[in-house]
Amino acid sequence: MKNLFKYTSLVVFACISFVACETTDLDLRVSPNDLAADQADPNLLLNSIQLAYGSNQAEISDLGADLTRIDYMFGQIYFNNFPGDTFDDIWGRTYSSDFNDLGDINVQVGMYTNLNNISAINAGSDIDYSFHEAVGKTLLAHTLFQLADYIGQAAFSEALNPVDFPFPNLDSGEDVYAAAFNLLSEAETLFAADPPTQGATDLFYDGDTDNWIKLINTLRLRSYFLTGNSSAFQSIVTGGNYITDSDEDFQIQFGTSELQPDNRHPDYADDYTPSGANIYQSNWLMNQMVVKADPRIRYYFYRQSDGTPGAPGVPADEETLSCSLVIPPPHYAGFIYCSVANGYWGRSHGNDEGTPPDNFTRTAVGVYPAGGLFDDSSFGEVGLGEGGGGAGIEPIILSSYVDFWIGAMATSDAAKATALRAGIEKSIAKVQGFGSLDSNADSSFEPSAADVSTYVDGIIADFNAATGDDKENVFAEQYWIALYGGATEAYNYYRKTGFPTTLAPNWEPEPGAFPRTFLLPQNEVITNPNLTQRSDLTTQVFWDTNPASPTFPPAN
After folding, report:
1. Which range, of 99-113, 192-206, 332-346, 389-403, averages the lowest pLDDT?
2. 240's torsion region: left (phi>0), alpha (psi -120 to 50) or beta?
3. Exposure string (b/e) for 1-16, b if CB count within 10 Å is 16 or more?
4. Backbone phi, then psi, for 128, in 5-degree steps?
5. Is the distance from CB of 32 to CB of 45 less than 8 angstroms?
6. What pLDDT, on a 0 to 100 scale, did the predictor assign at position 103?
7. At what angle do helices 283-292 and 468-482 cross, to 10 degrees?
8. Is residue 53 a contact partner of residue 111, using CB atoms and an 8 Å limit?
């Protein structure tokens, strides 16, 4: 049924785990999800858990980015954009198995069942597989947090027990959080003994248990922030044992292999093709960075054109950008509707117009995080193998993100400004480190240390001078910019705080209520008589205590 790697060849998995390889050894065999615990190899099971987790992170991040204007969202009506099957694959990978999204290898992977198998093997074996179990529990805990955050509920207390609970009920968000915290504690206990990897491939930290424990505490931090547990949050910050440096960043590393397998960053694979770029970038985000002269903009975006039709000084063009001829509607007053200056060619939130012949003029993903081209104002066309060849990352939790959480929980403006500065500086430093991936770029276009200092000092000055909502907007806009490429937490922050209020409106003036949660996974609803699908997207997660839709968030 499914293609899976021979566990006897770890080189094969290294290919899938985003390191370029010349050949791939594949074998038709039964999925590890279908094997009895005593038949499966723990290293193969852990591989499956990590691939399932990585695939889920990419999908969840895209959803968060689309809704918060960090990426472009196609489609005007929210309810139509996010139907009941939105979380089907994520749910499937979490509780049983589903197809891997990382690369082009048709591999069936899963988390919960494989973690249970690892636990059973570890309990009955003379070999210590505690490392495998600890990694699996950490990744499952994070996924459970996210299911509670994005759909409000998840299965845990009745999950994977078909004899007693053939149709499991879903646990409340609070109970899912409690279960996830317990899993983190169990994983931390296992990691604290510094167990051997037993030859396992660790995609994230290469067997460094200290970094895994820092991740566990960082997962606690993000969850304490969302639930408002300031004392527990501060206790971890005081302890200092969490992700504080880019060397500890939690991310997925991609490679440059185009075939067998394609382990390039998925956005690179979509944009760097013989037929041009296929992704539209967010007008709101690009305009924010243009207006602010953000030093990260040349790393984030690669311009194929030096001017966008309809922008100041550039003639409108009905063929390539039809909206450049349109007078912006009243609800877009004060916002960029169609054309961002300086050749940043994207689309605005909800624009569902057809696709014109703009694949070699629209703005493509850049060298960060997708491993593309650095924008040195050459305005060439994208193509296979250009720039960094796709050797980018999928950011999941970066040290810069954590500084923004610390700032959001700060009790004084001074402390918040300090955290804001740290978050911006760490983000810029990490992004600039990707410039070397494009060895053919003109490095003179890279911002200097003085440019960076001027930018950061200016943002902090703006923050200190602002009051009320304006101050919160300065902070949140910088958080959004730092989250480009890994925006899972943007959706949470937006529902938690309502900021930034400066987000551009939907293309449609009446798009329906902004999604406070997604619908339940339709496949589970169809097969589980204990579940009933929701009729709208307005259900609030337990930590979202803000006013009901449609009045909140205010920018929608």
Report:
1. 99-113
2. left
3. ebebbebeeeebbbbb
4. -85, 110
5. yes
6. 66
7. 110
8. yes
Residue 259: band (very low, low, confident or very high) from pLDDT cuts 50, 70, 90? confident
User: Is 275's pLDDT higher than 60?
Assistant: yes
Using alpha carbons, list the distances in angstroms from residue 516 to 56, 472, 495, 529: 20, 21, 7, 25
For residue 556, pLDDT beyond 90: no
- Mean pLDDT on 515-529: 98
Secondary structure string (H, E, C) spanning 73-136: CCCCCHHHHCCCCCCHHHHHHHHCCEECCCCCCCCEECCHHHHHHHHHHHHHCCCCCHHHHHHH
Instruction: Decide if pLDDT at 172 tops 80.
Output: yes
Mean pLDDT of 311-335: 96
Residue position matching structure tokens 């305005």:
379
Q: Which residues pair with 373 in a beta bridge?
A: 366
Tokens of 477: 């806009």
Helices in 152-202 by DSSP H: which ranges? 173-192
How far is Cα 374 from Cα 393, in angstroms, rounded to an integer?
15
Per-residue confidence (pLDDT) for residue 106, from 0 to 100: 65
Confidence of residue 26 (pLDDT cuts 50, 70, 90): very low
Rounded (5°) CA angle 378-384-389: 85
What's the mean pLDDT when you consider all of the chain? 92
User: Which one, of 233, 217, 224, 185, lies nearest residue 543 by Cα?
Assistant: 224
Q: Per-residue pLDDT for 176 more than 90?
A: yes
C-alpha 288/C-alpha 336 separation (Å) is 10
What the block records as the tokens of 76 is 């005007």
Q: Which residue has the tokens 């609070």?
A: 174
Chain length of the chain: 556
Listed residue (299, 342, 341, 268) closest to 445, CA to CA: 299
Tokens representing 135? 């990694």
Surface-to-core class of residue 315, CB atoms within 10 Å of its CB (0-12 exposed, 13-18 middle, 19+ buried): exposed
Alpha helices in 354-448 (DSSP H): 399-409, 413-432
The pLDDT of residue 14 is above 60: no
Q: Of 209, 283, 253, which Cα lies nearest the Cα of 14?
A: 253
- Whether residue 324 contacts residue 345, with contact meaning beta carbons closer than 8 Å, is answered with no
Alpha carbon 377 to chain centroid, angstroms: 28
Task: Copy the structure tokens of residue 482.
Answer: 């730092």
302 token code pair: 């690669």
Looking from the CA of 494 toward its CB, the CA atoms found within 13 Å total 29
The arithmetic mean of pLDDT across residues 90-117, rounded, is 87
